[in-house]
Write a structure and sequence with these properties.
Largest sheet: 7 strands, parallel
Helix content: 40-55%
Shape: globular
Strand content: 5-15%
CATH architecture of the largest domain: 3-Layer(aba) Sandwich
Strand order of the largest sheet: 3-2-1-4-5-6-7
Structural class: alpha/beta
Number of helices: 16
CATH class of the largest domain: Alpha Beta
Order of helices and strands: EHEHEHEHEHEHEHHEHHEHEHEHEHEHH
Distance between the termini: 21 Å
Radius of gyration: 20 Å
Bound molecules: uridine-diphosphate-N-acetylglucosamine, uridine-5'-diphosphate
């Protein structure tokens, strides 16, 4: 829903932002809050973009700035230049950004120069790893924000440790809202397992797209070797819905993907949820996937040296394994068959809490039946 004088503007541009903002956008529609959607165009391939708008019932973006891919500075700078006139004209009370991508940072920096308040959803996450672009994006965004929606107490405490205490709410993570809503529909409607010839509990699901992993041929090869060995040891199949960045790297590096890993195109959200739910093990370097596996009860191995999703390590749903094949095999041995943890990311009502706080901020009445 676009309106002449929107209360909110969502600025985003990548797959995880579409997925995690969807509960907020649909909630805003239900509440009759005026909003605009400003899509930076960071993700543009159909399987990373349109598929999610269609499946998650998201409105057409009010603007698609079509910035596309590029070097980090050029991409972020182009976004800022393109977002500014659109936000200036819309003059929303609050600009909402999510997570830690270049689109998040561009939305934040632009908003700082304007009259609107800035709200950061998924505030307070820290890996401590300054070599990752996402760490800079989340730190800078948190320090620029007026309203900060922390998914957990740990995230709130992190913000407090950095001197940010005002305007912070602990809301849970909207990924839980999205997963709880999506997983039953996925179980009923998705044919992903049949389509891919997979048995429930009979496969490893892999996603890896971080620059640090896939832009380095030796590291990418080592990760694939570790996962292939782990899958063979447990007599499991393995599917890898590869992000276009990873697909491109496999081709340009001429990497031979070891058996039994099967590279497939990225899946839509419901199919991916179905695959995650029934996997014996998920191996990933994705942030969102670490959270989803904690919610779905599927054991996870993360092929990174650190994580900003520390809660998943604490509850035992996730192990860090870096890129060394032996470590990946050992982590998989520990995790296959693991379960029984309590998910740390909330009760599936994060979007409602965030919208309550946003409505309070912009001075709208919040009817009691909104929470239902
Ligand atoms: C971005 C985010 C990352 C997030 C990921 C979600 C940053 C710094 N990184 O990484 O935090 O986890 O999105 O998936 O913002 N490409 C396509 N089609 C597309 C988009 C990208 O083919 O629709 C290819 C291009 O070759 C591009 C490369 O993927 O150069 C990387 O894309 P980019 O958006 O820069 O970063 P991601 O790896 O997608
Ligand atoms: N996802 C998807 N299809 C796929 C792989 C991932 O729908 O083939 C979803 C997944 O369910 C999760 C989100 O994409 O919600 C994670 O996005 P990604 O890994 O691209 O980014 P990150 O979370 O690491 O920023």
């Amino acid at each position: 829903m676009a309106s002449e004088d929107p209360a909110l503007a969502f600025v985003f541009g990548t797959r995880p932002e579409f997925i995690k903002c969807a509960p907020l956008i649909r909630g805003a529609e239900r509440r009759g809050i005026g909003f605009e959607v400003i899509h930076t165009g960071q993700h543009y391939s159909r399987e990373l973009d349109e598929v999610f708008f269609e499946q998650l019932d998201l409105p057409e973006p009010t603007y698609n700035l079509e910035i596309g891919s590029g070097s980090p500075g050029h991409q972020t700078g182009s976004m800022i230049a393109a977002i500014e006139p659109v936000l200036s004209a819309a003059d929303p009370a609050v600009v909402v950004v999510h997570g830690d991508t270049n689109s998040t940072l561009a939305g934040s920096v632009t908003t700082c120069k304007l009259e609107s308040s800035l709200a950061h959803v998924e505030a307070g996450l820290r890996s401590g790893d300054r070599s990752m672009p996402e760490e800079h994006n989340r730190v800078l965004t948190d320090h620029a924000s007026d309203l900060l929606f922390a998914p957990t107490d740990r995230a709130r405490d992190q913000l407090a440790a950095e001197g940010i205490e005002a305007g912070v709410w602990v809301t849970g993570n909207t990924i839980v809202d999205a997963v709880l809503e999506g997983r039953e529909i996925a179980a009923e409607r998705s044919d992903a397992l049949d389509r891919l010839g997979l048995e429930p509990g009979g496969y490893v699901l892999l996603t890896a797209h971080r620059g640090a992993n896939v832009d380095d041929p030796d590291r990418f090869r080592a990760i694939l070797e570790g996962i292939a060995r782990a899958a063979r040891e447990h007599d499991l199949d393995c599917v890898y819905p590869a992000h276009p960045r990873s697909g491109m790297r496999l081709r340009t590096f001429g990497i031979e993907v070891p058996d039994p890993i099967r590279v497939i195109p990225p899946e839509d959200f419901l199919s991916f949820l179905a695959l995650e739910s029934e996997a014996a093990l998920v191996v990933t370097d994705s942030g969102g996937v670490q959270e989803e596996t904690a919610v779905l009860g599927t054991p996870c191995v993360t092929v990174r040296e650190n994580t900003e999703r520390q809660e998943t390590i604490e509850i035992g749903s996730n192990r860090l394994a870096g890129s060394d094949p032996d470590r990946i095999v050992a982590a998989a041995r520990e995790m296959v068959g693991a379960g029984g943890w309590e998910a740390p990311y909330g009760d599936g009502r994060a979007a409602e809490r965030i919208l309550d706080a946003l409505e309070d901020h912009i001075g709208r009445d919040t009817p009691e039946d909104h929470a239902g």
